[in-house]
Amino acid sequence: MRYQISGKQIDIGEALQTHVKSELSDILNKYAGRPTEAYVVFSKSGHEYVCESVVHLSTGLTAQATGKATEIYAALDSSAAKMDKQLRRYKRRLKDHHSDRSQPVELSDAGSYILAPTDESDEAEQDTVNAMIVAEMETKIPSLSVGEAVMQMEIASAPVLVFRNEKHNGINVVYRRDDGNIGWIDPKTQG
C-alpha cells in the first residue's frame, strides 16, 4: 500500500508517519482487504489540529474521515476512529462486493470545474451563461452498480456521486435528498 502523508504548514516527523501507517494498516486489514493508497493531510485550524484521511480501496471505493483535536496524535486517532466506524458499518457489503468483482473498479477520466459565483446585482448579465472558471481539475468517474454507488457516497460523506452504471454503461447520479432519502438519476437514452 502506498501512503502519502503531508502537512499544511506543519512539519510531519518520522514518528508521526510511522504512527499513521500503523493505525491505518490495522484498521484496513480488519475490514478492507486490499487498500491501494492512503492520503493523510495534517493542518492547523486555530488551536486545533485537523487530520484528513482518504483511503482508496481495491474495490474502487474511497473512504474518508476528518478528525480534530488539540494535539496532533489525538487528531489522527479521531480520524482513524471515524474511518474504523465507517468501514465497520459497511464491512459485509465491502466483502460481498469485493468477492463478486474479479477486476478492480474501472475509472473513466472527466473534467471537473469550479465556477465563480455570479454577481446578483447585475440583472442584465444574469440572462447570459458566462460563468468564470476558477479552477480546472481532472476527476475519475467509477463504473459501479447503484448499490455500490450509494455505499460509496455514504462512506465518503458526500452529498452527490456521479458514476457510470455497470448495467448499461450510462452516466448516473445518486444524491442525498433534503428529506434524508437517497435520490437516483438514471437518464434514458434516446434511440
TrEMBL record:
Q: Which GO terms describe its molecular function?
A: ribosomal small subunit binding
Q: Which InterPro entries does the entry link to?
A: HPF/YfiA_ribosome-assoc, HPF_long/plastid, RHF-like, RHF/RaiA, Ribosom_S30AE_C, Ribosom_S30AE_C_sf
Q: Which organism is it from?
A: Yoonia maritima
Q: Where in the cell is it found?
A: Cytoplasm
Please give the CDD domains that the UniProt record associates with this protein.
RaiA (cd00552)
Gene3D superfamilies for the chain: Ribosome hibernation promotion factor-like (3.30.160.100), Sigma 54 modulation/S30EA ribosomal protein, C-terminal domain (3.30.505.50)
Identify the main location. cytoplasm
Species lineage, top-down?
A: Bacteria, Pseudomonadati, Pseudomonadota, Alphaproteobacteria, Rhodobacterales
Keywords, sorted A to Z: Cytoplasm, Translation regulation
According to its UniProt entry, the protein's GO biological process terms are: negative regulation of translational elongation
Q: What is this protein called?
A: Ribosome hibernation promoting factor
